[in-house]
Amino acid sequence: MIAEGWLADARTSYDTVAVGYSEQTRDALAGEPYLRAALALFAELVHAAGGGPVADVGCGPGHVTAHLHALGVEVFGIDLSPAMVELARREHAELRFEVGSMTELDLADGSVAGLLAFWSLIHIPDEAVPAVFGHFRRVLRPGAPLLLGFHLGDESRLKTQGYGGHPMNVYVHRRRPERVAAWLCDAGFTVEADLRLGLDGSFPGAIVFARRGA
Q1: CA angle, corner 108, sides to 186 and 139, nearest 5?
Q2: Tens of pLDDT along 76-93?
Q3: pTM beyond 0.85
Q4: Which residue in 5, 12, 112, 180 has the most C-beta neighbors within 10 A?
């Protein structure tokens, strides 16, 4: 896969499904107590480290961004899809949202006090993950927390439609926390905890807490 190709496909796909995605996920956190607990812990870690701006990378329509804001986090969102960013700005006008890619984060070195990538790494191919984690480390302050959420598993599949039956063309990569942890350690993070979710369901997930080293 050529980098420009999969990134362009992801952007176009999420531009296409933006409205349907927003409608289907708007209230998703209400039924996910473990995800809410993870976000609350992340907010606590950010506050304990002194607070400051936090980046929600791959924020989509901004529902998780808004949840963190309600927890007192100084959060802003970044997403590859202009349509998603437009929706996020419309629905959460009090917050800041920007178009951007985790493959080339347009943030200054050491400028954020925390970073969240909640189910936004799932379209990044394996060969691009180390560079993405390098960007995460670069923009985080020393000792700042990182929270990742992703699909649990070993396989990748092509997703051709979703969120109302609209066409999509993106690969969905499922991964094991051990593999993600190895990439994080190589990038200069300390992995502190992981949580596995929905192990008996159709869409098991995992959450990893890490912290940028000095």
Answers
A1: 25
A2: 999 999 999 999 999 999
A3: yes
A4: 112
